[in-house]
Amino acid sequence: MNLIEKLRTFGKKPFVLFSLILLLKSYLAWLVVFDSKVSFMPLLTEIPFAWLLFSLIEWFASKRKLGYYLSVNLLLTAVFFAVIMYYKYYGVIVTYHALQQVNQVTAVSNSVFSLMDPYFLFIFIDILVFGYVLLRKKKATTWKSTVATRTQKKGLVSAMFVVSLVLCLMNVLPNRASMNEIVKAGEMGILNYEAYTIFSSKKQELVDSKEITQESVDELKGIRKQTDPSYWKAAEGKNIIVIQLESFQNFLIGLKIDGQEITPNMNRLAKENFYFPNFYQQVGQGNTSDAEFVVNTSFYIPPIGAATQTYADRSLVSMPKLLKQNGYNSATFHTNVVEFWNRGELYKALGFDHYYDQSFFGQEDTVFFGPSDEMLYAKTADEIEKMSKSGQPFYTQIISMTAHHPFTIPDKKYHMTLPKRYEGTFVGDYIRAQNYADYALGQFIDSLKQKGIWDNSLIVLYGDHLGLPIYSLDRDDKDLMEEIYGREYGYSDMINIPLIMVSPGLTQPQTFDQIGGQVDILPTVANLLGVSMNNQLHFGQDLLNQTYNLLPQRYYLPTGSFMSDKALFLPGRGFEDGTNYPVAGNIGDGAEATEEEYERALKLLHMSDSYILQLPAKE
């Protein structure tokens, strides 16, 4: 009996055939997302959902029964595959909300394909086989006719539908309160979780805008008001140059591999100026664009979607607007097209006077989405020089991009030779790309000095987001990270980015050990400039005058995650079954976050969401 005959014989019972196929696919998804060993969970959570759909087919379909089975199989296969690929990048379970990102996928296709392990493609094998059979018209006609009759066992199908519905409800209803989305999807089942996110339309009630004051925010944050803050007006009147470094993680600072210094320019800046090694990202679905939003507003990212797509219709309070009131001109520089991540609307909402995108930088020396960092810095330096000659102080934000996932920069951009053990690895590609990014940054620094801009500026450098997600690393990559850290690479390491502040005549070699996040950049800069934020709500704090900090996290970590000076906390169903991870400086001391901090972190997120959604629409 050949393959087609076997398939046709088994295919006479498509309910059974497609149940087995989807069970195997669910095990593949669970293996990737939940690191699941063989268990009954996929059988108890995923298959009942499929049976609901199959029962409907058996009830109502006749002539096109096989087509419906194939369509359901294709749809659920797409869901499982999307879940796998999204988890490998973000570490979260994809939902229908991510459809907003569809227009971004083609732009980051290299990143998507780099995440794909070959065995993921097993999920499509049956579809290829079915496609082959259906192309054989005679065989396909025979197969379709064997399953075309409507089932006569309506009672059995009805019983199957009821049992499956009951099992789905038993998986969903008791687990709705779980805070951690990964835990929730594991308890409900992936397919049930996806359906739940579609049909659960409960909206959180907004906090009255009159109740959202700086005093209430500061109380939740644990901020102590300073009557005579340190460094007040220390950089008064200076130009502000903010450099956002693509995917730059803090472990790169000071790193040497077999004696090779990876980021010599950043190392020098960190050693000779204000350096904050315990600084953390606070981005979400929008990645780089989210970092731009958080830094310029001192608000948190939205619970769903990118800030550029969710909040860009609001009249946002921001750094450009605050500085404009104090005589500053503002501009932002990015070599991608401004339409990417809806940045054009974001920049209007933030109040930038000018933006420069790919239409300004051109198509010369392109890498990934646009011109290289060398082109970015060279043309930006010339434009900044023009701005400086106006006699008006300026604020510029510069977004680097060449060291972008998947970090496979062209050979002509290599400025180091990797040790053999790093060649061909994700970690190795990342390190080489960041070595290039540091080289280009060094050229920019030299140019600013030659043009006489450096000495009269406050330069702020930070990473926009992580580059090496734990869930994207294979065994070899994890071993390399353990070699670099001298211990296992953890969640707090993953989201740890550097912050460096440079101002000739002001900053001296000093390391600030308190934790901080991207929301803290705006109030810290405002203090240095001597610009009051008393009338501008913000959720960050001045890192030069506060020690304790509370940093709510979203998206890359489950809802309810936060950082304090004690630990990084990730919830389970709630606080009680959550997990504490050490932060830098607390390795091995057993410090734990408190439930009171957990509650305050959730309130801060809710307050930020409520405030922004009640802002007037931008003009």
From TrEMBL:
<feature type="transmembrane region" description="Helical">
    <location>
        <begin position="119"/>
        <end position="135"/>
    </location>
</feature>
<dbReference type="InterPro" id="IPR050448">
    <property type="entry name" value="OpgB/LTA_synthase_biosynth"/>
</dbReference>
<comment type="pathway">
    <text>Cell wall biogenesis; lipoteichoic acid biosynthesis.</text>
</comment>
<dbReference type="GO" id="GO:0046872">
    <property type="term" value="F:metal ion binding"/>
</dbReference>
<feature type="binding site">
    <location>
        <position position="465"/>
    </location>
    <ligand>
        <name>Mn(2+)</name>
    </ligand>
</feature>
<feature type="binding site">
    <location>
        <position position="288"/>
    </location>
    <ligand>
        <name>Mn(2+)</name>
    </ligand>
</feature>
<feature type="active site">
    <location>
        <position position="288"/>
    </location>
</feature>
<feature type="transmembrane region" description="Helical">
    <location>
        <begin position="15"/>
        <end position="34"/>
    </location>
</feature>
<protein>
    <submittedName>
        <fullName>LTA synthase family protein</fullName>
    </submittedName>
</protein>
<keyword id="KW-0812">Transmembrane</keyword>
<feature type="domain" description="Sulfatase N-terminal">
    <location>
        <begin position="238"/>
        <end position="531"/>
    </location>
</feature>
<keyword id="KW-0472">Membrane</keyword>
<feature type="transmembrane region" description="Helical">
    <location>
        <begin position="156"/>
        <end position="173"/>
    </location>
</feature>
<dbReference type="InterPro" id="IPR012160">
    <property type="entry name" value="LtaS-like"/>
</dbReference>
<feature type="binding site">
    <location>
        <position position="464"/>
    </location>
    <ligand>
        <name>Mn(2+)</name>
    </ligand>
</feature>
<keyword id="KW-1133">Transmembrane helix</keyword>
<dbReference type="InterPro" id="IPR017850">
    <property type="entry name" value="Alkaline_phosphatase_core_sf"/>
</dbReference>
<feature type="binding site">
    <location>
        <position position="404"/>
    </location>
    <ligand>
        <name>substrate</name>
    </ligand>
</feature>
<keyword id="KW-1003">Cell membrane</keyword>
<feature type="transmembrane region" description="Helical">
    <location>
        <begin position="40"/>
        <end position="61"/>
    </location>
</feature>
<feature type="transmembrane region" description="Helical">
    <location>
        <begin position="68"/>
        <end position="87"/>
    </location>
</feature>
<dbReference type="InterPro" id="IPR000917">
    <property type="entry name" value="Sulfatase_N"/>
</dbReference>
<keyword id="KW-0479">Metal-binding</keyword>
<feature type="binding site">
    <location>
        <position position="246"/>
    </location>
    <ligand>
        <name>Mn(2+)</name>
    </ligand>
</feature>
<comment type="similarity">
    <text>Belongs to the LTA synthase family.</text>
</comment>
<dbReference type="GO" id="GO:0005886">
    <property type="term" value="C:plasma membrane"/>
</dbReference>
<dbReference type="Pfam" id="PF00884">
    <property type="entry name" value="Sulfatase"/>
</dbReference>
<keyword id="KW-0464">Manganese</keyword>
